[in-house]
Amino acid sequence: MLTKDNITRFINKQKNSRINVAKEQLNELLLVCMDKSPECQALYRKFRLSILELKDMVDDIDLYVGVNYFCQNPNFSILFDKQGFIAGYVFSKKDFLEEQEKIKALYQRILGIEQEYNDLIDKCRKFRTPQKAVQYLQKNGFDTSSLQNITKEGE
User: Is the pLDDT confidence value at 29 over 70?
Assistant: First the structure.
């Protein structure tokens, strides 16, 4: 039987697919920036070695719980990943102004996609029945055949 939760999962799947495309474009742009700058490559190697050394030290000593948590918590991994480092480098240099604008635009696009789909979820949750929400999605160009299969299975 089709529920509003099925529709929410469907919309989230669509949202994640679009966001992943934009994130991949952002990742490619950042890698191009890194390839363009030997200084960035060298600094990243040093940075990565320092992070690994810090993690090893914290693991060995395990005295300062806050640092240990900070280094190992996946929510903070953006501080240690390659894309975060490259973006920081690009935004610190004046010779990357064009790339900075492209990065900002892609980031804004990701935020826009997120907002657009969250608004769509809110709108679909307000319909009285899941079938009305499916009709609304169809009217707005979504391929809802996977949702229609759920309806048929429930009948």
Answer: yes
The CA–CA distances, whole Å, from 68 to 8, 54, 80 equal 37, 9, 14
71-104 pLDDT tens trace: 555 555 545 577 877 888 888 888 889 998 999 9
Which position has the token pair 């920036």? 33
- Is it the case that residue 123 has pLDDT exceeding 90? yes
Residue ranges covered by each domain of the chain: 1-36+97-155, 38-92
Report CA Rg, the chain: 22
Contact 126, 119 (CB under 8 A): no
- 59 in the Ramachandran plot: left (φ > 0), alpha (ψ -120 to 50) or beta? alpha
Instruction: Extract the tokens encoding 149.
Output: 């299969």
**The residue to which tokens 């980031």 are assigned:** 107
